[in-house]
Structures are given as C-alpha cells and as structure tokens.
Amino acid sequence: MITEPRIPDPDGFYAALLAAHEGLDEAQSADLNARLVLLLANQCGDPAVLLACIRAAAAEDPTTSTPP
Amino acid sequence: MESFAFAPAYELPVWPFVPPPELGSATVVRHPLVIVGAGPSGLTLACDLAQRGIRAVLLDEDDTVGVRGASSRGICYAQKSLEIFERLGIYERVSAKGITWSLGRTFSGEQEVYSFNLQAESVSRQPPFINLQQFYIEWFLVERILELGLTDVRWKSRVTRVELLSDGVRIGIETPAGCYTIEADRLIDATGANSPIRTQLGIDARASRSTDRWCISDVRFKKPLPTERWTWVDAPFNEGRGVWQHLMADGVWRIDYQMPEDCDTAHISRPEVAGARLREQLGPGVEFEFVWIGPYGYRDHLLDSFRHGRVFFIGDAAHVVSPFGARGGNSGIQDAANLGWKLALVAQGQAGDALLDSYDAERQPAAKENLKVTSRSARFLAPRSPAEHTLRRAVVALAARHPFARALVNTGRMSVANDYPPAPQLPEGARTVQNLPLRWADGRETTLMQLLAEGTQCLGLWLAPTRAEAGAALDATAALPLRLLAIGGDSGLPALQADETLRRHLGLHDAGSFVLVRPDAYRAATLPQATPDAIASALRTALALDHHAP
C-alpha cells in the first residue's frame, strides 16, 4: 500500500469528489462511494494491496478504534 | 382468485422388508462394512463397493427413494458426480432422463448482468451439469446395487443404538418384525443432516442456521424457456428478491423464490400464494400445474473430523452447506467415491488402515472449502446490514456496464471437484482428472472411467516409455494394485493413442513423463522423468503403504 502522496493535484481531486456528491442525499452518497470503491479497487487489482487498504481504512474508523 | 392444480403424485418404487437372519437369533453377527442411510452418498458408496466386488450391509429406515412425496431435494449433478456415475454404470440412465446444461445467466431486474459457460473448461465425456430429481438418482443407484448383487440392502431398518467397541461397532436396529443387534468392523454414517449416530456419539456438528427464507415451487408448464440456469439477484416479479429457475426431468421446473426473513412459511407456500407468484413470473395465459411446494431455511454444519475411529461420516452427516452452487449432494457423492476404493483396498489386504485416514485428510478440507464458498454466496444473496445492501447495489449497478464487476455478482459458484491439499499420501496435493475420451492404439474407444471401472487399482499413464523401463516397472510394481499403460511409443505395454488433449490435461509433455491416477480419478503424482523405482515409490506413497504409526 502506497501512503506517500501520489495525486498530482490533491485539491482538484478533492473538489471533484465533493462535486460528485453535491445534491445527493445520504443514501445516494453511500451508493456513489460504494461504486467508486469498487471501480478504484479494480484499478489496483493487487490482492495484498487491497487487503492492506481495507485494514487501513477500518483502523481509521473512530467507532472501532476508540472505545466509548 | 385463480385456482391452481397439482399434478398426480409420482409413483415411486417400494422395496420389500425382508426379515434378516439375525432377527430372533441370540448370536451377534459381525459384518465387515455397515452403511447407514440410503441417500445419494450412502447409495453411491454401496454401489462403488459392489462395483469393486466388496460386500456391505446397507440399512435404511424407509423402503423407497426420495422424501416427502415428490419433493425432489437435490437437482444439479456436477461433472465429477456424473463421471462417478459412468464408472458405476448408471450414467446412461441419468443422461437419458435428465436435462443437460452448461450455461448460467444472472439477472438484476430485467437486465442480464453475468453469464458463464462451464463447457469451455471441459475435456470430459460428461457435460458440466445434468439436472435430475434426486429420487431418480437414488432409484437408479438402488437398481444398480441390486443388479450387482453384493449389497445386503435392509429396508425399514432404523438404527436405534450405536456403541463403540475396541475393535468395531455394535449397532441396534429396529424393524417392523422386531429389534436385533449386529456388529461392524467399520460403520459408515450416511444418515444425513440430522444424523442420530452423530448425536449418540456426542459429536458436535457446529451447526448454524440462516435467517434467509426460500420457497420452492416445482411446477410443470408449457412456456418454452431455454434449458439454462437462470438466477435473479432481485427479480421484479418477486418484490425485488432472489429467484432461481432450473429445468428438471419430466418437464418440471424448479423455481426457488427468496422470501422475506420474517415471512409466515405456511402462508407463502399455500398453492394460491405460490400460484400468484408464478402467474406474475410467467404472465397471463400460461397454464401450469404444481408438482410440489415447500418452504425452507438453510443451515450449515461441518464436523472437525470425518473419521472417529471405526466410524466414518459421509455426505450431509459430515457437512451441510447452503444450496447455492449445488455443493451439497455432489460433495456427498464425492465423499463416497473417495472412501470406496480405500475401503476396498483395505478389505482386499492391499492397503492398511492409514489409507483410511486420508479420507478425512482430503474430504474435510474439501467440505471446509465448500462451506466458505457457499457462505459467501449466501451472504451476497441475503445482505445483513444497510452497508452490505449498499455494496451489493453498487456491484449490480456496475455489472450492467463494466465486465470487472460481473465477477463480483455471486448467485452461487457451481460445484467443482475440489483440489486436495498436500499430505503424506499426496506430496504434491491432488487434482481431479476429467473423464477423457481415449483411444487404444488399435483404434478402439474407451474412457478414463471405463479403465477405472475394472477392479480397484491405480492407473499409471506413461508417455512413450522404453521397452526396458516398461518391463522393469512391471516387475517393480508386480505386487501393487497398479495398471500400467503407455501413451504412444512402442514399449510392449497396452498403449493409448497420444492425443494432444490427453497430454495437455495430464501435463505430460516429454517422453518418459508419468502420471499416477487413483481409482477416484485424482492425480496422485506426476513424475517428469519416471523410473521403475520412482513409480513403485509414488504408488506406495499414494496408498499410504510406507506409513508407520508413531
């Protein structure tokens, strides 16, 4: 899993991501994110990297990392 | 409201209860092999043994085939099972009666999102799948067993008690004419998911039950539809839930509807309710009659070990999985084929008890794999949380436009002959060898299964050996159960034609390379450059003859 910056225009990417969600309700946004995750996963394709990304994303979730 | 008719019930064969000699005798007779349960796995094992000339007692509490009238239970028989049926001599009947298919299509709403054709991977004489009501399979097996005449089939014989002895098993049996006791050197439990033997022996099956609910409608109608496996992730005619559609023998369609988890199972299986569902699917003007309607929820379980001393568990008694992919009945049939030749070689004094341990070492991991695969399908079909629903919606939406997402649509991964992991008797692990059509050097046709149907021996397939090597190998393996065949060349051995498909499937490339095929058509060893000693050694390893108990 690559964690060094690789996206040439981070602000531009983030803006495009936000723009895609604009006007969507919570469910529509969740659907969009899910489709995006699957499309991006196929760009990577490497099972070890995919599992590392899943683990990293799960570890960042405050509901699982910090007990109340 | 429209009214719906039922077809007349199937007339299934009934076999007579014959009071056995042990009834009313004080002597407890000892039998080498006792199989309990005449379902697909128990019958396959009895038939496999009889085909090999081995006697067994087969006990069943019923006196017919099938359960609950025309309920068909299993319907899809996979290539490996069909190949076993060829070896046992019932394939032609199965093929003539059943529906051959290889193409599966998956739909979401009105749109096809995924399809597969299993024929592409096949070099076997048998097709990837034949659909046939389970009771026909059982019926053909019983008739074949009776024809072979070596199995002591005892109907209306319910096992009430099982007691482990130091050198065998004592079995209490209840019949319409009274109770009696027999003993067995080895007992094979093929009594199915609710095995009373397992319960008696206190063996935990680690069962879990799904909350997913389905309703089967077996139905006959005239509308012409392709003989393909059609599945819907979310059918518009079933309130957005899953549907399976498959043709079986006698023009009967198996249509399986996913129901709400909290449904009233009595209500959803009423003929007028099931009929309304079917009318929605088929449209107006299509006449149909029901053969059977039944609600079900699936469950799974897996024994930690399929062998407990002198008791062996096969089929549903050992493992139960959800129905997606037809991995239940087919793996039971393969359990039987895995155990049959081993029991036969032990009975004939050509192998020791260590070979029987390999049954568990091979089939338990196979069942574990099937449980993993079917659980993933079940989870795709019945998402458990809003997040799982969201992900599945994304998969289905993308699948309509992008090939990569189609691979994620999971309405069941069809039953395969599982690979076996490396083990003492299988240093390289093992893969199935398909039932290749073969030709002898003189042009006569045969198949791998026909070669394996003669006696109980491994097949040594050797690409163009020299005369000297062939002669020395025959000497080195003279006392072992091996049939040595050449592929091409001029070695003096009986020879098969060196067909390219055969060579590629077996992985035989250079002259002198060798493949050892077990009686269950699994490849036990590959020798890139075989010598007579290496062949004898590979055979001894495969039969666990070099095993020394610690």
Tell me what the structure shows:
The complex is a heterodimer of chains A (68) and B (550). Chain A has 68 residues and is mainly α. Chain A has a domain of 38 residues. In chain A, 71% of the residues lie in helices and 0% in strands. The radius of gyration of chain A is 14 Å and the shape is globular. Chain B folds into three domains: 227 residues, 3-Layer(bba) Sandwich (FAD/NAD(P)-binding domain), CATH 3.50.50.60; 87 residues, Alpha-Beta Plaits; 112 residues, 3-Layer(aba) Sandwich (Glutaredoxin), CATH 3.40.30.10. In chain B, the strands form six sheets. In chain B, strands 1-18-14-17-16-15-6-7 form an eight-stranded mixed β-sheet. By secondary structure, chain B is of the alpha/beta class. Chains A and B meet through helix 2 of A and helix 10 of B.
Features:
heterodimer; A: 68 residues; mainly alpha; 4 helices; 71% helix; 0% strand; B: 550 residues; alpha/beta; Alpha-Beta Plaits; Glutaredoxin; 3 domains; eight-stranded mixed sheet; 15 helices
Distance between the terminal alpha carbons of chain A, to the nearest Å? 30 Å
Largest sheet of chain B: 8 strands, mixed
Please indicate the percent range of residues of chain A in DSSP E strands (runs of 2 or more): under 5%
How many discrete structural domains of chain B? 3
Structural class of chain B: alpha/beta
| CATH architectural label of the largest domain in chain B | 3-Layer(bba) Sandwich
Mean pLDDT of chain A: 91
Please tell me the overall pLDDT of chain B.
94
From the spread of the alpha carbons, the general shape of chain B counts as: globular
Adjacency order of strands in the biggest sheet of chain B: 1-18-14-17-16-15-6-7
Report the radius of gyration of chain A as a whole number of Å. 14 Å
The CATH class of the largest domain in chain B is: Alpha Beta
Spatial extent as radius of gyration of chain B: 25 Å
What percentage of amino acids of chain B are in beta strands?
25-35%
User: What ranges of chain B have pLDDT less than 50 throughout 5 or more consecutive residues?
Assistant: none
